[in-house]
Amino acid sequence: MKKICIVEDESSLLEMYKLKFETEGYQVITASDGQAGLAAIKESQPDLVLLDLVMPRMDGYQVLQALRADPKTSKLVVYIFSNLGQGSEIEKGMAEGASGYFVKSSLTPSELALEVKKILK
To answer: Hey, CA dihedral for 6, 15, 39, 64, is it positive or negative?
Structure first.
C-alpha cells in the first residue's frame, strides 16, 4: 500500500483529502504544521508528500529545505500543494527542490487523486 503524507494547517481540508486518499486505497499520514510534518515524514518515509506552504511553526519552504538537506529524505517525492499560484511562488518551490506544484483552487479532490495516481505509478 502506498503511503501519502499530507501537511496542511487547515483541518477541514486535511480531513477531506485524508478521506479521499484513504477511499482511493492509500495509507495517509497527516500533520497540521510544518514541524509536525517534518517529524511525520522522517518517521513514516511516505511515497509522496503533499506540502502546504503557509503554515505555523515552519512553512512549507523550510520543511522542503530540511527534507532536501537530509540524505534519508532528500529523494522523497514532494509536491507543493498551495493556494499560492503565482509564477514566482511556483518557481521558488521548484528551486527549493519540489517534485511538482499543485494549486489547490484549480483541482478538485478527485482531480488531485488522479494526479497522485499518475505520480505513484
So the answer is: positive
Q: How far is CA 54 from CA 80, 82, 83, 84, 104, in A?
A: 11, 8, 9, 9, 12
* CATH number for 88: 3.40.50.2300
The model carries a pTM of 0.96
Domains held by the chain: number: 1
Q: Residues for the chain: how many in total?
A: 121
State the Cα–Cα distance between residues 118 and 121, nearest whole angstrom. 5
Which domain range does residue 94 map to? 3-119
25-59 residue pLDDT tens = 999 999 999 999 999 999 999 999 999 999 988 99
